[in-house]
Design brief:
With 343 residues, the protein is mainly alpha-helical. Helix content is 46%, strand content 1%. It is built from 15 helices and 2 strands. It has helices spanning 2-8, 10-18, 24-39, 57-71, 75-87, 120-132, 139-153, 176-179, 187-195, 201-208, 235-244, 271-277, 284-291, 296-304, 306-321; strands spanning 216-217, 257-258. It has a two-stranded antiparallel ribbon with strand order 1-2. It is globular, with a radius of gyration of 22 Å. Mean pLDDT is 88; it is low at 1-42.
């Protein structure tokens, strides 16, 4: 263990060389103290992080997610989207939730976050946690845990997630375009973006399976319909899409949308991959999954095995949720997910 610590924490390695060798007990005590300072003081995420400070934290989140789902079913889809749009941009730090105030430019105003909604219900969950354990559970952990529990409400897998994330004190608006893949980006670019945070091609294909639930605004698909129909689209599916999106230039504020999966639109299942094989990919990046030699084998396998899809989805979602967590010094636990704490 000393060797591992010396490799991971350079300060420990330096101190070992200058400490007297005759006092082994003091040396080991010093190592242990440094280990706890760096390993736990830096707010590294771990399982059951709130076991002592807020033992019911995860259960409270789950109860709220279920309650909100029963009132507003689409919240379950929102939780998954929120995790993706937050964690892909620099860190899983709830920066996405910040409003524009006191010099902060909200990430919500980015065109990449168009259509995102249900932010207000994050604060519903936060309020319940604040009542039980004030200033203890971060908004970043709420984002992660609500996505985990939302996936279950959508018929997806149960996922064990670590907690202990800290909330950002700043927005990352300027970094969104370079971090979040766009709907019309090539699959190779999308793969490279996910790879940059440690998610391989198999995991990327699985995460795109989240497109099996929810809907897409017509603005993001009309380029495949007008002036001519994308030849990679199934003709019958194209007719359905034209019926949903009859205008080449949709009103950005109008409720005009289409679903990728028309048969099980609120179930996180492998119908998405079956549709891709039938040329019914809603976005161009969806359809590229089946034509690209890197991703097509995974599409075939997930189309054939829903359990395999769920396993890979769970694995990739965990990696996404653990992207670059902030240290205690870098972040904070916000009292209101919309605003940085007042000094």
């Amino acid at each position: 263990m000393v060797v591992i610590l010396a490799q991971k924490y350079t300060l420990i390695s330096i101190q070992l060389h200058i400490m007297p060798t005759h006092n082994l007990f003091s040396n080991l005590s010093f190592i242990v103290l440094l280990f706890f300072h760096f390993h736990f003081g830096a707010s590294e995420i771990r399982f059951n992080y709130y076991s002592e400070t807020c033992p019911n934290a995860e259960e409270i989140v789950k109860e709220q997610v279920i309650s909100l789902y029963n009132k507003h079913g689409n919240t379950a889809v929102s939780w998954l989207r929120t995790l993706f749009h937050d964690c892909m941009v620099k860190s899983c730090d709830a920066s996405l939730l910040l409003e524009s105030i006191n010099g902060i430019e909200s990430e919500k105003i980015s065109s990449r976050n168009m259509g995102m909604r249900n932010y207000k219900y994050i604060n519903t969950i936060k309020d319940a946690l604040e009542s039980a354990c004030p200033m203890t559970v971060s908004c970043a952990d709420i984002v992660a845990l609500s996505a985990r529990d939302g996936a279950v409400m959508l018929g997806g897998p149960h996922i064990e997630m670590k907690t202990g994330r800290r909330d950002s004190k700043q927005s990352h608006l300027a970094e969104i375009d370079a971090s979040l893949p766009n709907h019309n980006d090539s699959i190779m670019y999308v793969l490279s973006r996910f790879q940059s945070i440690g998610i391989d091609a198999e995991g990327t294909v699985a995460l795109l399976g989240a497109h099996s639930v929810g809907r897409v605004h017509c603005l993001n698909i009309v380029d495949r319909l007008y002036p001519t129909v994308d030849p990679t689209l199934n003709p019958n599916y194209a007719e359905y899409l034209k019926g949903r999106c009859p205008h080449p230039v949709p009103d950005p504020v109008a409720v005009e949308y289409a679903r990728n999966d028309r048969d099980t639109p609120m179930i996180l299942d492998n119908s998405y991959y079956k549709n891709l094989k039938d040329n019914k990919g809603l976005l161009s990046v969806d359809q590229e999954l089946i034509s690209n030699p890197i991703t097509s084998p995974f599409v075939e396998k997930m189309a054939a095995d829903n359990n395999y899809f769920h396993e890979q989805f769970a694995r990739a979602l965990v990696i996404l949720s653990e992207n670059n967590p902030l240290s205690e010094d870098e972040g904070e636990v916000r009292s209101d997910c919309r605003f940085v704490n007042k000094d």
